[in-house]
């Protein structure tokens, strides 16, 4: 891809990770809309989004450690999905749930700050 030369590999890896998180979130929303896989289009969209999410996460892991990659992916996906659930589907978002989300964010930040970068390939 031509644009890969415009960014450093590490910066591009973070963009791949962001795309992976967004794809995972889109897949989860589509999964909710699939009504237990009884609606074909949302079910196919969910599957495609999850495949893209894992592929893009694998590209990010070339330059970001596996532990940090997965922590950021899972934590970001969890937090943003919970917020979208509240905004789009009227799912409850209590003070205790918000405290839990804050703990997830704190854990992801801590892991990201404490982890050394893997050697470049």
TrEMBL record:
Entry keyword set: Cell membrane, Membrane, Transmembrane, Transmembrane helix, Transport
GO cellular component, one term: plasma membrane
InterPro entries according to UniProt: EmrE-like (IPR037185), Small_drug/metabolite_transptr (IPR000390), Small_multidrug_res (IPR045324)
Protein's UniProt keywords contain Cell membrane: yes
One example of a Gene Ontology biological process annotation: xenobiotic detoxification by transmembrane export across the plasma membrane
Transmembrane segments: 40-58, 70-89, 95-115
Principal localisation: membrane
Pfam family, one: Multi_Drug_Res
Protein's cellular compartments: Cell membrane
Protein's UniProt keywords contain Transmembrane: yes
MF annotations from Gene Ontology: transmembrane transporter activity
Parts forming coiled coils: none
Bilayer topology: Multi-pass membrane protein
Family: Belongs to the drug/metabolite transporter (DMT) superfamily. Small multidrug resistance (SMR) (TC 2.A.7.1) family.
Protein name stated in the entry: Small multidrug resistance pump
Native source species: Acidovorax soli
Lineage of origin: Bacteria, Pseudomonadati, Pseudomonadota, Betaproteobacteria, Burkholderiales
């Amino acid at each position: 891809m031509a644009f890969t030369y415009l960014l450093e590999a590490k910066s591009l890896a973070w963009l791949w990770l962001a795309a992976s998180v967004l794809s995972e979130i889109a897949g989860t929303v589509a999964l909710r809309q699939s009504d237990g896989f009884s609606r074909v289009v949302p079910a196919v969209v969910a599957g495609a989004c999850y495949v893209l999410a894992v592929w893009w996460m694998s590209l990010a892991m070339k330059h970001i450690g596996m532990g940090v990659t997965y922590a950021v992916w899972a934590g970001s996906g969890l937090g943003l999905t919970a917020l979208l659930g509240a905004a789009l589907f009227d799912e409850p978002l209590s003070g205790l749930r918000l405290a839990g989300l804050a703990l997830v964010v704190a854990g992801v930040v801590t892991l990201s700050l404490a982890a050394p970068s893997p050697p470049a390939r």
